UniProtKB/TrEMBL annotation:
This is Quinolinate synthase. Pfam families: NadA. InterPro entries: NadA, NadA_sf, Quinolinate_synth_A_type3. It comes from Microbacterium schleiferi. [4Fe-4S] cluster binds at C167, C298, C388. Binds 1 [4Fe-4S] cluster per subunit. Belongs to the quinolinate synthase family. Type 3 subfamily.
Length: 449
């Protein structure tokens, strides 16, 4: 008998992290999750202070952080299939009156209903571009919805399906802390809003997109700019053209990794701890500083380690390791590449030969990429399934509720930024949108209808 080569189709991969967590907790799948409470629906935690189960569960949430009211019972008791059908029906009824934006880190059951999917930079552009929509439903976290409100028209309503979907990193730099730091830096450098003889300001404030509208407004008032992981280098170059040094917040790792790649020595990047006088520094250290890094971080990306990379290389010879620049410097240095969520997605799409990828970013994106590209082996560097606590708060039940409320003529969970904050924040955001890197990221990709 002659042997025949049979080409087997790649085995389908379930893109749903929720299904994987349910399987792990029930025992039907092998694996480990960081908290078995992740199997519960997020409304169980809406009345409990904290970010909820997931990567940020150990972070301290500020007093007065937004809470979500009780979701009506019909949405809490509906099955996954029923919610899927109700969301689809509501969107069909609303048509072009509504646009749904979905961040890459959202659960699959939500992302499938998004009209545009992308990172924070791309979705900011999508919010600005959809001037025809009466309502923008932002399936992401609070600072993203604020940004959409800043960039959208005054007659457009921006809706966050769950008000408890905040961001622990954004909360690590409050407006009071930043203003206090600014005053302390003025004691060291003099008037921070007056340029020197060469036309350079003593400090240019740069805030990561993962920050409140109040912080963006502060930056806009003080000649600064917003950045994302897609354009951080371009933004720092912009800032160095205008100032002697940069105050970068709230994520120390993105700031450090970006500046280090630009040749800034580590000794010229002191940390600013808002709980210590002068951030824990002295005048000499601050005088020599080029980038002052705020003591903040992303709890998702802090989970990745060099040991995980070493294990991936040992078990998968030839593996290609790509991590997000919010990871600690040692992890970025040990990886093959570092880049934004959009960079990671494009790198995988561009791989023409079957490749093994170990990815250091939020697990929902990694799982989705694995399902979309079964010709590759794609896995998350962290073997423990631990999604972003706050992205996890957006559930199809909340999406169905806000959409059906719109059908009934009610706008719920609207996010608005006061005018005194919005005006300077828009200035900082417009500077960000103009700071396109040489290979600028594409616009958020539109879901096929």
């Amino acid at each position: 008998m002659t042997a025949v080569n049979i080409a087997l189709a790649p085995r389908p991969i379930d893109p749903s992290v929720d299904h994987e967590i349910q399987g792990i907790v029930s025992g039907s799948l092998q694996g480990e999750t960081c908290n078995t409470d992740l199997v519960e629906a997020p409304w169980r935690f809406d009345t409990v202070p904290g970010y909820g189960p997931g990567a940020s569960e150990g972070d301290v949430i500020p007093t007065g952080a937004p809470r979500q009211g009780e979701l009506p019972r019909e949405y809490r008791e509906a099955s996954e299939d029923e919610l899927d059908a109700r969301i689809t029906a509501a969107k069909n009824t609303l048509g072009d009156r509504v646009v749904v934006l979905g961040h890459f880190y959202q659960r699959e059951e939500v992302v499938r209903h998004a009209d545009y999917v992308g990172d924070s930079f791309q979705l900011a552009g999508a919010a600005k571009a959809r001037t025809d929509a009466e309502a923008i439903v932002f399936c992401g976290v609070h600072f993203m919805a604020e940004t959409a409100d800043l960039l959208s028209g005054p007659d457009q309503a921006v809706i966050l399906p769950n008000l408890a979907a905040g961001c622990s990193m954004a909360d690590m730099a409050s407006i009071d802390e930043v203003e206090q730091a600014w005053e302390e830096l003025a004691d060291v450098y003099g008037d921070l809003d007056t340029p020197d003889a060469e036309g350079l300001l003593p400090v240019i404030p740069v805030t990561y997109m993962n920050s409140s509208a109040a912080i963006k407004g502060f930056v806009g008032r003080h000649h600064g700019i917003v950045c994302t992981s897609s354009n951080a280098r371009t933004v720092l170059e912009w800032a160095f053209e205008r100032g002697r040094r940069v105050l970068f917040f709230p994520d120390q790792h993105l700031g450090r990794n970006t500046a280090k790649a630009m040749g800034v020595p580590l000794e010229q990047m002191p940390m600013w701890n808002p709980r210590k006088p002068l951030g824990g520094n002295d005048d000499t250290t601050l005088d020599a500083a080029r980038v002052i890094l705020w003591h903040g971080f992303c709890s998702v990306h802090r989970r990745f380690s060099v040991a995980q990379i070493d294990k991936a290389r040992a078990e998968h010879p030839g593996v290609r390791v790509i991590v997000h620049p919010e990871c600690p410097m040692e992890v970025v240095d040990a990886a093959d590449e570092a880049g934004s969520t959009d960079y990671i997605r494009k790198a995988i799409e561009a791989a023409t030969e079957p490749t093994t990828f170990a990815i250091g970013t939020e697990v929902n994106l990694v799982q989705r990429l694995a399902a979309e590209h079964p010709q590759h082996e794609i896995f998350c560097l962290d073997p423990v399934v631990c999604p972003c606590s706050t992205m996890y708060r957006i559930h199809p039940g909340y999406l169905a509720w806000v959409l059906e409320s719109l059908v009934a003529g009610d706008v719920v969970n609207r996010i608005t930024v006061p005018a005194d904050v919005a005006d300077p924040a828009r200035v900082a955001l417009e500077r960000m949108l103009a700071a396109k890197p040489p290979a600028a990221p594409a616009a958020a990709w539109e879901q096929a209808s």
